[in-house]
TrEMBL record:
The lineage of its organism: Bacteria, Bacillati, Actinomycetota, Actinomycetes, Micrococcales. Keywords: Methyltransferase, Transferase, Ubiquinone. This is Ubiquinone/menaquinone biosynthesis C-methylase UbiE. The keyword Methyltransferase applies. One of its GO terms (molecular function) is S-adenosylmethionine-dependent methyltransferase activity. Coiled coil: none annotated. GO terms for biological process: methylation.
Length: 201
């Protein structure tokens, strides 16, 4: 874990106990679970899983999936493990999970790519983890809605621009070998999000 990740881990350790209190987090992960095509999915890895809300939403929709959540916040993972004890929880960077090659059908990464200092490393890790015909699904903050500001993360670099439009997503993800397959706009009273599915190419 590098210095920026240590700072971010500390921030989310502090936020962990109240993270699940915000309706936005629940509403968004429910929408993503509905967006995802699970017809050929039996194994899921959720990067920057936090308290595991994404995996909880997928488990509620399709029980029996093999679920693994990865995060750098110990406190977030402790809450996730309590809420969904039959999933696997890994304390690791999203750029270096330690999980086996080609070991999952679906990687998800929700509201986190803008925070990751090594996005190329993270996307390379996604490609490594995906089995043939696997997919990556992301949710990123779009232009026009409320977005977390850099100051909330103690000055760490925050990059929304690389993910805030469909064209930006095509360029950013394309540079790491992913093609945009589907995109859907989701919004609530204050946020505008882009839900996107990518295929390795």
């Amino acid at each position: 874990m590098d210095d920026v990740e240590k700072v971010i881990a500390g921030v989310f350790d502090e936020r962990a106990d109240s993270y699940d209190d915000k309706p936005f987090h629940h509403d968004l992960t429910t929408a993503i679970a509905e967006f995802i095509d699970l017809s050929a999915v039996s194994r899921v890895v959720d990067l920057a899983t936090g308290t595991g809300l994404m995996l909880r939403a997928l488990d509620a929709r399709t029980p029996g999936l093999a679920l693994t959540g990865v995060d750098i916040s110990e406190r977030m993972l402790a809450i996730a493990a309590h809420a969904l004890p039959h999933a696997s929880w890994v304390l690791a960077s999203a750029a270096s999970t330690g999980l086996p090659d080609a070991s999952t059908d679906l990687v998800t990464c929700v509201t986190a790519l803008h925070l990751m200092p090594d996005k190329d490393g993270v996307l390379g890790e996604c490609r490594r983890l995906l089995a043939p015909n696997g997919r990556l699904v992301t949710a990123t903050f779009s232009e026009g809605g409320r977005r977390p500001s850099p100051s909330r993360y103690l000055g760490s670099a925050v990059d929304h621009d690389s993910f805030s439009t469909q064209e930006a997503l095509r360029q950013t993800m394309g540079a790491s070998g992913f093609a945009l397959a589907r995109h859907q706009r989701w919004e609530d009273a204050t946020h505008i999000m882009g839900l996107a599915e990518f295929l390795p190419h």
